[in-house]
Amino acid sequence: MEIASKYDSSQSEEKWYSYWMDKGFFKSVPDEREPYTIVIPPPNVTGVLHMGHMLNNTIQDILVRRARMTGKNACWVPGTDHASIATEAKVVNKLREQGISKNSLTRDEFLEHAWEWTHKHGGIILEQLKKLGASCDWDRTSFTMDEARSKAVIKSFVDLYKKGHIYRGIRMVNWDPKAKTAVSDEEVIYKELKSKLYYIRYLVDGTTDEYVTIATTRPETILGDTAVCVNPNDERFTHLVGKRVMVPLINRSIPIIQDEYVDVEFGTGCLKITPAHDINDYEIGMRHNLESIDILNDDGTLSPAAGLFVGEDRFVVRKKIEKSLEESGNLVKVEDYNNKVGYSERTDEVIEPKLSTQWFLRMADLSKPALDAVMNDEIQFHPAKFKNLYRHWMENVKDWCISRQLWWGHRIPVYYLPDGSFVVAETDQEALAEAQKTTGNKNLTMSDLHQDEDVLDTWASSWLWPISVFDGFNPDKNEIDYYYPTNDLVTGHDIIFFWVARMIMAGYEFKGKLPFKNVYFTGMVRDKQGRKMSKSLGNSPDPLDLIATFGADGVRVGMLLCSPAGGDLRFDESLPEQGRNFANKMWNAFRLVKSWDVDTNIAQPQSAALAIEWFAQRIQKEMAVINDHFEKYRVSDALMSVYTLFWDDFSSWFLEIIKPAYQQPIDGKTYKAAIAFLDDLMHLIHPFMPFITEEIWHQLAERKDGESIMISQMPATKDFDTDILNQFDLVKEAVAAVRTVRKNYNIPFRDAITLKVMAGEDGYVNKFDAVLAKLTNIETIDKVETKITDAASFFVKSSEFFIPVESNIDVEAEIKKLEEELKYTEGFLTGVMKKLSNERFVNSAPEKVVATEQQKKNDAEAKIAVIKESLAELKK
Fold first, then answer.
1. Averaged in consecutive runs of 10 residues, what is the pLDDT profile of the chain (876 residues)?
2. Angle 148-152-158 from CA coordinates, rounded to 5°
3. Does some domain include residue 556?
């Protein structure tokens, strides 16, 4: 087979992904093997691939492919989330462009449009993931509103309601006026804004010139004021207790009350109380039995209850009311003021606190086992620093507002009777039967029942994801027993509360055990200036364009090169370019080996035999390191291990040693070993770079149809010889030093040289002399007992090497060189001694680490002694 001079990533990716799909390599069915399960964090059905998805799914694919190659039954379940608010907003906008108002449609008519939108756009992001090489079991693709997932949501609601965990009540909620729905606390993003602080005078009722002054950033809400509050310990206002004040512009008389919530030092010391539009005011209002006046419509315009500016937008009113207050003499002053304002994560609309009748899920009981599981490491977070963030939220968790005033989503399974009472049931038929039973009226029909108009929060479906994707609420299905709990969850830390915490709660509530064993938190992908990537900033590249330019393998490597768990990734196009360069390096190394003529009749050179002996140990050592990295979820570190193993050790050292002379053949034994090492390396690299490794692996040997590196096993791990590795490290030092001498003394490589070595106290190992000789063109290597004059010298540990040179040695230059080396070595020894004199280090560090530092000390001391001796000789 002729090997292309350049690797064509686009051709390879299309070919091999189709091959994997056609052969069903991604599919998983329960069998006798140990399962390895990952569920994809379901992206919004309306979404397209962005850089965060690229990072997250690259890591998942690496974990899945590695598990598959270590003999596990790997199952990666893909799917999408129906994204109630985002999808409904897109459908409403689409209808508006067509001249259709949502309000002109029935619920069923609107849902037809929503499903049409979903079917048209819903599969885009999953198809894009295939371009990345994602090895999901696509036959298992789930959607949070498909039949199985919908039944799970409804069943869980009914179950939780019957257990007393779900209740209905009027509570202060975060209201999104654009989406016209409540959102949870976790869906509110606070932004620091430059606002205004308005100081407003309220006339004391019954007087003509006595006022109290309040300060507010939302002057439009004075129309809903039902009290003014002062601190009972504030002597400035003691004389006003029991009196009333008049609300400006509308002249409503409201009481002055006392509550310790008021901060004496903040503002004027007087606080306006608007129970319907501020959570703290609401709680004060509850304590003091105050009236609540809701002055806002669902769309953020003022309601008739406001009395003024009815039907006008809240922000328009804010400007108008400032002018009205000024004209009436009630505006004292306006100051610039920085404050945090809540925005809806879904629509980027300013949130309004609003009293609303909603459905809530009690969280206190559900949170305890979920908190314990993480704090005792039954579920492990990577990195562990996120445990504290998780604990803080779980210890202060609030009841979850689970109802949304939308049509797209899972409709709440609550059915109201004509008298206002209700029943909770999974189906219409069950609801009717329950209603007939509770009322004793057998003549009730479905026309007498009315289902709740609201839908459930999107997260009320995705919190069941690890269970519902295996149809775990269906008693007839047993796959859940094989695949659950799942193994690893890979997700962004920004949804630790939205999703991770809630999935853990659901796991213990519905299955009695954890939903996953490990959570790997990815960081945020930022640009090279540290800014969050966004469409508005125009700093986010199109992932598909990156794949087209650098290849999927190159992009995967680029995303991981500087992306530790939980740490933000500063992305620059030099990263996928580095990934592409690595792919080219692999291809060129492969082409080099395959280009050699093989002669099975010639003897194997000693240098090649030594190189094979060394690299066999080197690859085993790095496999142990890679395994350790994966066990500790240091995926980026594992990539760097295989990267340096291939680039430095295999390409720069091993191939350089075994490479035959120009136009000469290579012996069969060495060639066979090189092919075997390439095979092993392709296995180690495959999880990171699936396409090029499959391509090279198929060209390394004859493969049968149906064979693939992705379903073959990782190389077996064995014990490795540390002595050989340490000895070869010394050879590397010697090679570098000889090359430096050649350069300094203008000795071309074609001229063979002789090397004399005076062994130091740590001994001189001549095992790898043949390697040193080949790489530096040394004719002979001889041991000597005394120093050689008229020779360039260098040290490797305490052994001194001499290369006789024709020109006279510059004694002064040699003294200067040795003094610099002495200074460096003494500094190095000082650093080592600091460590060894630190009792905490010596007592807590692993024994091997301490032993390594002790060996460094011994080597440095021996080297210092030899350098001093050499200096003494030169200075005579």
1. 86 96 97 97 86 92 98 97 89 91 92 92 88 97 95 97 95 90 84 92 92 94 95 90 93 93 86 92 92 93 94 95 95 92 88 91 94 97 94 92 94 95 96 94 93 95 96 88 97 91 97 97 84 70 92 94 76 91 97 95 96 97 95 94 97 97 94 98 98 97 95 95 94 93 87 92 85 95 89 88 76 80 88 85 75 82 80 72
2. 145
3. no
Q: Provide the CB-side half-sphere exposure for 728 (13 A, CA).
A: 20
pTM: 0.85
- Number of helical H runs and strand E runs in the chain: 27, 31
Token pair of 44 as six digits: 């919004």
- Cβ distance 72 to 34 under 8 Å? yes
Of 470, 503, 522, the one marking the end of a domain is 522
Closest by alpha carbon to 339, among 272, 267, 420? 267
Question: Quick one: 718 exposed, middle or buried, by C-beta within 10 A (0-12, 13-18, 19+)?
Answer: exposed
Torsion angle of the four alpha carbons 541, 545, 549, 554, in this order, in degrees rounded to the nearest 10: 70
> Cα–Cα distances in Å, from 408 out to 292, 405, 457?
31, 9, 10
Domain range for residue 812?
731-874
Q: What's the length of the chain?
A: 876
Residue 342 within a domain:
yes
Structural element, H or E, at residue 305: none
Does 740 share its domain with 703? Answer: no
Q: Going along 703-860, which residue ranges are E strands? A: 753-758, 778-783, 791-796, 799-804
Per the domain annotation, does 357 fall within a domain?
Answer: no
Task: Supply the DSSP symbol for 570.
Answer: E
Strand 253-258 vs strand 73-77: parallel, antiparallel, or unpaired? unpaired
- Domain identity same for 108 and 19: yes
Work out the burial of residue 656: count CB atoms within 10 Å of its CB; fewer than 13 is exposed, 13-18 middle, 19 or more buried. Answer: middle
Number of domains in the chain: 4
According to the model, what pLDDT value does residue 651 have? 97
* 791 and 853, same domain (yes or no): yes
What CA–CA distance (Å, rounded) separates 190 from 588? 52
Q: Which of 504, 522, 540 is the last residue in one of the domains?
A: 522
Answer yes or no: are the C-beta atoms of 301 and 313 closer than 8 Å.
yes
Instruction: Judge whether 164 lies within some domain.
Output: no
Q: Is 743 found in the same domain as 713?
A: no
Query: If we measure between CA atoms, which residue out of 804, 807, 811 comes closest to residue 870?
Result: 811
Instruction: Give the CA distances from residue 537 to residues 340, 526, 561, in Å, rounded to whole numbers and listed in that order.
Output: 22, 11, 24
Cα separation, 714 vs 700, in Å, equals: 16
Helices 606-631 and 668-685, axial angle in degrees (round to 10): 10
- Coil vs helix vs strand at 227: strand
Whole-angstrom distance, CA of residue 771 vs CA of residue 757: 16
My answer on whether 338 and 208 are in the same domain is yes
Q: Please give the Cα distance from 206 to 204 (Å, whole number).
A: 6
Bridge partners for 520 per DSSP: 382, 490
Order of strands across the sheet with 486-492? 380-382, 516-522, 486-492
Same domain, 714 and 745: no
